[in-house]
Structures
1.
Amino acid sequence: MTSPNDTTFPSTFLFGAATAAYQIEGAADEDGRTPSIWDTFSRVPGAVLDADNGDVACDHYHRMPEDVALMRSLNLDAYRFSIAWPRVRPDAGAPNQKGIDFYSRLVDELLGNGITPWVTLYHWDLPQALEDLGGWTNRDTAHRFAEYANTVYDALGDRVPYWTTFNEPWCSAFLGYTGGQHAPGRQEGVAGVIAAHHLMLAHGLTVDQLRERGAKQLGITLNLTVADPYDAAEPADVDAARRLDLLWNRVFLDPILKGRYPEELAPHTEGMTFEGKTWQDYVHEGDLALINAPLEMLGVNYYHGDAPAGRPMPSGTDFLGSRIEHPSRPTRLPWPGCDDFTFPRRGLPETGLDWEIQPEGLTRLLTRLKDEYDAPPIYITENGAAFDDVPQTGADGSSLVIDDQDRLSFIDGHLRAIHDAIEQGVDVRGYFAWSLLDNYEWAYGYRQRFGIVHVDYDTQVRTPKASAEWYAEVARTGALPAPRG
Ligand code: PNW
């Protein structure tokens, strides 16, 4: 039941949860899977906190039916998961039936439980064999991706309605090839822009081919931010915010939704080369037309707003502000030509990763996508927070209770910000909590917990947290209960 003070979403709004293959599956060398760049990178000394890797993770590969039953108990309308390229086409070679079968069983299990499957074709696990040939700085990788995407579509296209090509290509390109925080850990300046171009080219080729095969709902997921100057009265900070917007949001939004690179990108990257060539040398005739293919949906992942200062600040921290004990490997800022950035704290509340919590930024971002980009229907494909959960023993003396009011309010606040955007005329059609389960948080390993469901990594027991119980009610009623107190 909803009361008059509840915040109600449109009746077709999807409430879901999201995961990614390498973060939950485990079974790293089973049924023909071969290494991805994350299997390699997680073994580089200092690259990942506690040297954690995804060999076992949440053991989802062996516990899939149990996990789908859990989703059903949480009333989820949809489940967003990613397909591991190195399972489906190991070493980017021939299709591997055992790998395909796993995802086929997952899709059937979801449909049998009334949950809509939402596929992401790439959530960062590039076959290592392709990185050995240059990875995303090699144009051929885009063609190999499209080939892999066809294999997946041919196996699942009859049952999966929603298809996203890439998750957060910004991370793959700029954390992977400029900053080195993520696999493959390269720190090669403008190579990030070239990787971004090839990722978008792969997206365009794939949209074209899946469209021809009959796909009806195609899109891409971008991690976007609101870039505000740390001090709006300080010209250096205003310019830093402009460059952050350019190299975080516009470098993807403009080609994909407008068919051109932002004009400011050329002057900004003047004189930067990779293997003796500029990034423009990698853009071939016809690429932008492919990249600009019409889409039925845009996925937006939003975690935090960002306010750079364009000058050294004593209280500055790394690019997302994290002060937690870090991987020891030296990294660079992930935007070429932005080494003057610092990210001083604004006094906003922060998550366990020290990310600044700014729900109103999401409303601004969404209205911008409508006004400036005339964006296709939007789905929030990830939003959530890592906090230090404190498991307690339940009244029965054995069960676990995780009363994560901080995560619950984080999700509540962002759902309200989305509701505000809908009221302002933005076409937002769904929300996926990140994440269904505590899982492998990339360079931060297993210490950072994003799940609405707790995972005990010794026993693999799953325990829904307070946020999950609350979210299950939101999904059931389609409304946010009036704030308490
Ligand atoms: C996203 N950064 O990752 C991913 O899509 C998820 O796989 C991940 O678990 C989630 O957000 C939470 O981090 C990001 O350093 C990881 O800018 C790092 C960054 C951004 C996104």
Note: The chain has 15 helices and 14 strands.
2.
Amino acid sequence: MDLKNLIWEQEGRVAIVTFSRPKALNALNEETFNELARVIDRVESDDTVGALVLTGAGEKAFVAGADIGELQALETSMAFVAKARRGQNLFARLEDLSKPVIAAINGFALGGGLELALACDIRFAADSARMGLPEINLGLIPGYGGTQRLARLIGEGQAKMLIFSGKPVTATRALELGIVENVLPAGELLAEAKKLAAELAEKAPVALALAKRAIHDGLATDMGTGCSLEAHCFSVAGGTEDCKEGMKAFFEKRPAQFKGR
Ligand code: CO8
């Protein structure tokens, strides 16, 4: 792909996309958003991609937030709203991808950078990483879904601690809080994220997409409606060729060969 601020690589069925804007610690400017939109389209439509890993270039930052220079240039409240909605819509599309997305947080994930990671399915962090929502220190609040996703993920009180104080937390604390699923030595982070992505990319794609749908949409509703959605997704998975293959392979004591239908 022809990209300036992102690097696209593919290893087998895993796409690895690296945020790379070294002069601004990989901060998200409009150009990066446009490129991320193209990456999301590609991942959704490309059958050779089964999982996506997002990471940051260099050792210092995953993504240090929205580009503060661009925010400074906004003159009206409506311009702030438009920018927030654009980011929210893009991160919603990322979250909505039918394929698993893993954030490999290699350094600072601040503001929009943490909000980006929160829109991923699974977060691995380097032991040296720092995460936070420091917008309050700019006289702002998180605007790319952070107030909503963080509170849902770690609870209202802990989310308020992070958002009100603006203080970043260490990777170990992020693990305790449930912001990340795993903390690894920096040198092993990407390899471990890619390893998990490769494993997930071999699962039955329709079942994986349906599990993701049931979890996401279920969390947005009550238990009864969620269970009803689960039963529906379960029945769709049960009608796939991959389901027949999975059960046949079980009794034949061999690995299943999934085809995505
Ligand atoms: N935007 C633009 N440039 C940045 C950003 C950023 N978010 N972060 C770092 N940079 C630049 C610095 O200006 C600096 O540039 P230069 O070398 O030209 O001076 C370069 O990157 C290196 O940064 P530092 O010299 O500051 O490096 P340090 O090691 O001293 O500090 C930090 C590293 C702690 C990560 C520090 O750079 C920092 O605090 N960065 C800003 C973090 C931040 O506040 N992020 C939140 C931004 S706001 C946001 O994300 C809102 C999201 C919702 C928007 C909704 C739309 C309205």
Note: The chain has two domains: 6-202, 205-252.
